[in-house]
Amino acid sequence: MGETLPTMDLMRSEPMQLARIIIPIESAHRTISYLGDLGLFQFKDLNSGKSPFQRTFATQIKRCGEMARKLRFFRVQMAKAGLLVLARSAYGSEISLDELEVKLGELETELIEMNANTEKLQRAYNELLEYKLVLQKAGDFFHHAQSSATAQQREYEEHRLVEGSMDSPLLLEQEMTTDISKQVKLGYVSGLVPREKSMAFERILFRTTRGNVFLKQNVVEEPVMDPVQGDKVEKNVFVVFYSGERAKNKVLKICDAFGANRYPFTDDIGKRHQMINEVSGKLSELKTTIDVGTLHWSSVVQTIANQFEQWTNLVKKEKSIYHTLNTLSFDVTKKCLVAEGWCPVFATTQIQKALQRATVDSNSQIGAIFEVLHTKESPPTYFRTNKFTSAFQEIVDAYGVAKYQEANPGLFTIVTFPFLFAVMFGDWGHGICLFLATLFLILREKKYSSQKLGDIMEMAFGGRYVILMMSIFSIYTGFIYNEFFSVPFELFGRSAYACRDPSCGDATTIGMIKVRDTYPFGVDPMWHGTRSELPFLNSLKMKMSILLGVAQMNLGILLSYFNAKFFQNDINIWYQFIPQMIFLNSLFGYLSLLIIVKWCTGSQADLYHIMIYMFLSPTDDLGENQLFWGQKYLQILLLLLALVAVPWMLIPKPLILKKQHEERHRGQAYAPLYSLDENIESDLDYKSHDEHEEFEFSEVLVHQLIHTIEFVLGSVSNTASYLRLWALSLAHSELSSVFYEKVLLLAWGFDNVIILVIGIIVFIFATVGVLLVMETLSAFLHALRLHWVEFQNKFYEGDGYKFSPFSFALTSDEDED
């Protein structure tokens, strides 16, 4: 691993090559494994016509899927036990896939059996608990009823002895002579019913039996673990008295319908006490058995948790290897596997070393063969990025992946994106707050990178280096605007202006004189708070926005030249790059020149008037709007150049493309015959070439017309679009000023501690919520639009596809997501 990788080149993607690897079957698995560790080879699917079930290694993938299912079952058991997966656990030694399959099967069987036994024991335990409650509560019913009946009998006896009557002997004689067999015997059903269903239960019983039952309920104070559901439920103990077999059947059916658990009961006090003692003994035994079983279950789950990460990684790795092996095809001898795919040119040596190592480690007699193929197929795009540049590259890739080796906007985005953001967010106080928040994320990146974060936090953490650059540039532009939470400071020296006399301190520049040299860096602090502040800053920021926009659009057109030069497309240089540069700079490049000249000379010329009458009456004298000698003639020349540039873009390119197409196909009737394989390959190339090179002059002309109109109109609209830099900068400054003056200073003026504290809290929340969150998001989106639309549409095609190598690191990340 002592080799040094080539330096990163973000300007163009890595040179790629299509390679074929012929691998002996005995070393295929190890070869794919080593290539997955390397992560620099993208396999092509050579079996795209086959379904997943028809492929060679479908059985092995099914095995891995079954093991993954068992591991998911183990994860559920670990979550039930409250255990965490030990990251990168070092427990246990290396284990093969076959051994792991057997072990996982044994552990799953053991856990399922233990869970089933525990569930049965727990259900029996819960049933006994309920039975005990029924015996106790229903026993209270009968005890209370018997006590009440005895009391009534005693009262009746006393009443008869004391008062006596003529009817008493006859009634007593009648009671004594009644046949016992003719007395009505009441049956009863006891159990527990959920409390939320108890009222409906009582109502249905009454209606179904037409009132011929007697229901007695007693509330159980604590929730009871239901044996069927396994959840704690609030319940009532009930006893239903009935008469007759039909009533009994109805009562039993209603109990079943309401989920009431029925338990046998005896009204014999002695037997009831004996049953309570027996149930209590069984409960104690079951509790001991359940505790021992739970302890054993916990130890098994803990053993699984110690090696869970290792097993999961092995299964994921093996499954991805077999998925990759399924993309390979057999050669004619059925003894070798053939792989095709893309890899960077710089990775050739590393791949060959991995193949050699796999051959040696698998004790294969034949080594794998690596050969480079020549193809006209467009290669994938691969930029080697690090944790700093990857976020900027993602911003570009969200618009579209770069075509193979075209100029990459990501390189320039590293600087231009945070800078344009900062132009709209210029306040070094807010920039410092943003910087400190981002610094916190960067200092804790090791911790956060291994954690699951929320969606918003995940986005902020992923773009931490983008936000860091945005905050640094915001501090820089804040120094230029001289704003610290909208308050100016004399950081780089004293103001150049002072009052002529004491009466001029009325917040106006009138009456001020320049007493010192110009303020060395940024806006003079004396401008802030004056009546001239808004017109001055408006003029400054609007002109600056146009200069920045024209500069970035020129950069985009310049990159189109480098693309054309790299791909040796002279037509695009002569009939696209040159007329576009002429058109853009004849109008808006000239406007930028006027802005700079006006700043340098301090002229009062009206630039709006100059630009409007440059089109309406180019031959008129400029009068007081003339900034330099020969300006009128220069304007006429630039206007003529802009007019010439439009047909220059529109007409020649389609005609030249048509001529080239005719010349290219004029001599294709015959081709040299070399060898059979080469001839077949060339035929295939010609066919694919013909398929992609179908030429329709009308389509090309319409496409060029649309492109020309889009550029001409876009030059105006895109330049105007850059004025958003001025608008958002002004909005940010004014909001900051309002929060400072109307909240903080207003609260300070009341000379009351409570109002001051409330004012400070409101100011902090307004600053964080509006300026540091909403304004940051707003400026970010506008900077994104300026890059995607105004900058990238000048040169960036973005119709490529990403290099997606087979890599175990990428596979594990995707599975975690």
Automatic annotation (TrEMBL):
The chain crosses the membrane at residues 419-443, 464-481, 544-562, 574-597, 633-651, 753-774. One of its GO terms (biological process) is vacuolar acidification. Residues 97-124 form a coiled coil. GO terms for cellular component: vacuolar proton-transporting V-type ATPase, V0 domain. It is found in: Membrane. Its main location: membrane. Keywords: Coiled coil, Hydrogen ion transport, Ion transport, Membrane, Transmembrane, Transmembrane helix, Transport. It holds the Pfam family V_ATPase_I. InterPro entries: V-ATPase_116kDa_su, V-type_ATPase_116kDa_su_euka. Essential component of the vacuolar proton pump (V-ATPase), a multimeric enzyme that catalyzes the translocation of protons across the membranes. Required for assembly and activity of the V-ATPase. Belongs to the V-ATPase 116 kDa subunit family. This is V-type proton ATPase subunit a.
